[in-house]
Design goal:
Strand order of the largest sheet: 2-5-6-1-8-7
Number of strands: 8
Strand content: 5-15%
Largest sheet: 6 strands, parallel
Distance between the termini: 30 Å
Oligomer: single chain
Radius of gyration: 23 Å
Structural class: alpha/beta
Number of helices: 15
Length: 388
């Protein structure tokens, strides 16, 4: 009820089918809840915890997105300011619609009005709907707190809009977005600047504890699907915002009074187009893929590097249910490996399905086969139960 950003796609589908919003509270959620409380105690006593970040990893369907959703809600209830982004995939694949601006290429032989269609050059400018939607839900959840955060940095956005608080910056982004059809080239760039400036202000915040929660963050590490990025003059199709999230460990280390929670996704992008470019810098610039990129366009090798530079904590509800970790370290980056659902957890899930009359009680008898077929992976369980 305190997550105005909406739910990750698969979880939203699960809630829709069951006609109720309920999550199974698992051991990995308990560890994250304890981590949130422990970090808050450090911040209350004025202690900065360097490198505060928890990376949620595991097979698809092991509850990473659900745990991140729970963490965002729990952190808000604990008094944190939470910037929760349910899908970083949108930063590179669906941030918004485009504004087409036509420019004629004039030659010496022909006048501009007489040029054929093939002499028209179309430049595509971003309509950064993703950033605007993110800021709108962020303000909805934390309006009063953001009003209390005075700006500390000098920036062009602060000077132009005479902004004094983080809330003022968020409002300025909406104002310029409302005029984007007229300022189709300038507005996306300025909105991107404002979004990045808000994050910079949150990083140096010392009076309010901050959590940045990112789902599907590894999607932005891979090569994009833009085959000809130079033809799109895209200032902030949220691509510049993606830059700051590419290294969650570095982001966590840069926060004075907060930490980062980031979950990976195992859903790979469409392979219908060759992935040729990486989003870099202030615009979508041409990028020459490295040999590592060509060998692994998904960017998984970058994820592996992040895991290798963090402490490894494994929650194994199936093979080692009696050897579960009691807490997460708070003084170093952590990779929390999430476990598939155990049979006991599966039975609990089935009670939920039966309670809402989604399946007939007698179908609970198939629990052993259901667990074996699904491998304890949530989205497969839901698909099978939907078929039943």
């Amino acid at each position: 009820d305190n997550v105005s950003e909406g739910f990750p796609k698969q979880i939203a589908g699960y809630f829709r089918d069951l006609k109720r919003n309920s999550l199974l509270f698992r051991h990995q959620d308990l560890l994250i809840e304890q981590y949130i409380i422990a970090q808050q105690q450090h911040f209350t006593h004025g202690k900065q915890v360097p490198g505060s970040v928890v990376l949620l990893d595991g097979k698809g369907g092991t509850g990473k997105s659900a745990s991140l959703l729970f963490a965002a809600s729990a952190a808000r209830k604990a008094g944190y300011i939470v910037l929760y982004i349910p899908s970083l995939r949108e930063l590179t694949t669906g941030s918004g619609t485009y504004i087409a601006h036509t420019r004629r290429v004039v030659t010496e032989e022909r006048t501009e009005d007489d040029l054929p269609v093939e002499n028209l050059e179309v430049l595509w400018y971003d309509r950064p709907e993703f950033i605007i939607a993110t800021l709108a839900t962020f303000v909805e959840a934390h309006r009063d707190q953001l009003q209390q955060i005075a700006l500390q940095r000098k920036s062009a956005a602060r000077a132009e809009f005479n902004a004094r608080t983080v809330l003022d910056l968020a409002k300025a982004a909406q104002v310029i977005y409302d005029d984007i059809d007229r300022q189709f080239e300038r507005a996306p760039r300025v909105i991107g600047d404002i979004f990045l400036e808000i994050i910079e202000e949150l990083k140096i915040q010392q009076t309010q504890s901050v959590v940045i929660a990112l789902d599907e963050f590894n999607f932005i590490l891979g090569l994009t699907q833009f085959a000809a990025p130079a033809k799109r003059r895209i200032h902030s199709r949220s691509v510049r915002a993606a830059q700051i999230f590419m290294d969650p460990i570095a982001l966590g280390k840069s926060m004075r009074c907060g930490f980062v929670l980031a979950a990976t996704t195992k859903a790979h992008p469409s392979k219908s187009r060759e992935r040729k470019s990486r989003i870099v810098g202030g615009a979508l610039a041409p990028y020459s893929p490295t040999e590592a990129d060509r060998a692994d366009p998904s960017g998984a090798y970058l994820i592996e590097a992040l895991h290798n530079s963090s402490a490894q904590v494994e929650v194994d509800m199936i093979s080692k249910p009696d050897e579960l970790p009691e807490e997460l370290p708070v003084d170093e980056p952590v990779t929390l490996h999430c476990s598939p659902f155990s049979k006991v957890e599966l039975e609990t899930l089935l009670y939920e399905y039966i309670d809402v009359k989604y399946v007939h009680p007698k179908e609970q008898l198939v629990v052993d086969r259901l667990h074996a077929i699904s491998g304890g992976r949530g989205h497969i369980i839901h698909r099978i139960v939907s078929t039943l």
